[in-house]
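Researcher: Checking consistency across runs. Here is Sugar ABC transporter permease again:
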Amino acid sequence: MKRSLGGLWDTWGITAILLLLLAVAPVLTPDFFSLDNAQSVLRESAYLGIVAAGMTFAIASGAFDLSVGGQLALCSVVSLMGFAAGGTVLAVAAALATGLACGLVNASLITRLAVPPFVATLGTLFVFRGVAYILTKDGPKTLPYDQIGSPFVKIGGLNVAGLPVPFLIMLAVYAAAWLLMRRTATGRRVLAYGSSPEAARFCGISPTRLRVFVFALVGVSVGIAALTYITRVWTADGSAQDGFELKVIAAVVLGGTSLKGGKGTLIGTFSAVLLVSVLNDMLVSEGVPSAYQRIVLGGVLIIALTIDGLRTRFAAPGSLRRAVTGLGGRTPKTGLAR
C-alpha cells in the first residue's frame, strides 16, 4: 500500500515529537515528572485543549475563529458574576450560555451579513474583550477565598485517581468530538464542506447551517474551557489570556488539521496541545522571561504553518517511496543513478 509523507506525519509526527520532548524534559527540568508538576501540566493543558477541539472543527470546515481569547475572558468574567449571584449552577450555566451567545454572534455576522470569518472574528475579539473590560471597570472579578471548598472551585482544583478534573473534562470533550467528527453525518459534512464548498452545496449541504453549527460549537467549547480556567486562577478581567487565540490555532494546525480545510485530526490536536503545554512548563520552570516565551510561541506558529504547507506538498500517495528513492540517488522513472 502506498503511503504519503503527509499521512505519516498526521498519524505519528506530533506524537513522536511529544515523546522526544518528554524524554528530554527531565534533563532540563529535573522535577518535571514529579506528581505535582505533572498534575500542573495536565491541568494547564485543559482549557487550551478544550477550545482546540472546537477549533479543529472550524479549521477543518475552512474557517477559523480569532475571537476565542476574547470569548474566554468574557465567559470567565460572566461565570464569576453568576457564581456571586447564584452559586455553582448559575456560574456553570452563565459560562456555557455566554460561550454559545458569542459563537452565535460570530455565526450571524458571517452568515447574515456575509462578513468573512477572519474579519468577523477579528472584530469580535476586541468587542468581547471590551465588554469584559466594561464589566470589570471597578476591578477584576474574583472568587472569595472562603469558597475554597465549594463545588465550583473543585472543578479546577480536584483530582480523581491522581488526574486533575480539568484534564478529565478535556478527555471527555475529545471523546465526544471524535465521535461527532468520525461517526456522524454532521462531522462528515464539516469535512466535505472544507474540502470543496461548491461540491458540498451541490450535494445539499447548507453553508449557513454548517457555519452556525461550527461557530456555536467553538463558543460552547470556550464556555467549558472557561470553567476549567477560572476555577484555577480565581480572577478574571478583559486582559485574561491575551494571545490565547494564537496558541489554539498553532496547536490545531501543528496537530495536523489543514488550514485549507477538508481534513481534521483530533488525536493530532490532542498531542499538539500536550506538546505546547509541556514546552510552556519547561520555559516557565527555567525562568524564561515572558517576552521570550512569546517568541517561542511565534516560532511554534510559524513551524505549524510551514508544516501545513509541506504536508500538502507530500500528501499524494507514493510520496514516501519517491522521497526514499530520491535519497537513494535514483530517478523514479528510469532507476538510473543521477
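Researcher: Does this match what you'd expect to see?
Model: One thing to look at in this run: The chain has 14 helices and four strands.
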